[in-house]
Amino acid sequence: MQRELDVAKRAKVIEWLKTEVVDHISRLFKALWEGSTTRVTDSLASLIVSSYILGRRLGVSYQELDDTILDKLKKHRQEGHQLEDWYQDISTLEEHMRKR
How many CB atoms lie within 10 A of CB 94? Predict the structure, then answer.
């Protein structure tokens, strides 16, 4: 019985986190529409935090997520992603993450 409750609780938490991600995206879009830098920053931070925690609840460690992000950035940089070509966003973020 306890195990069944735990499984149900974990499933409920995952569903709740999914709604949090959607809510943060909605808040981000509203903040962009309003032009509020403070609210944009807060919404982005909340989205990132919720994404990390959702990943953890799904069995992805924070380190594994960081490593996958770094791999993705490296791949984009090597393939000449437009944001890298135009603004060096990919390599700048990759450097930031490696310094953490």
Answer: 20
The token pair that represents 22 in the structure block: 């959607």
Number of independent structural domains in the chain: 2
Do 55 and 9 share a structural domain?
yes
Per-residue pLDDT of the chain (100 residues; tens, 9 = 90+): 667 778 888 999 999 999 999 999 999 999 999 999 999 999 999 999 999 999 999 999 999 999 999 999 999 999 999 999 999 999 999 999 999 8
Query: Taking Cα atoms as reference points, which of 55, 59, 94 lies closest to residue 73?
Result: 94
In which residue are the tokens 């135009």 written?
A: 86
Half-sphere exposure of 33 (CA within 13 A, CB side): 6
50 and 71 fall within a common domain: no
Q: What is the pTM of this model?
A: 0.87
- What range defines the domain where residue 93 resides? 60-99
**Quick one: 47 and 84 in the same domain?**
no
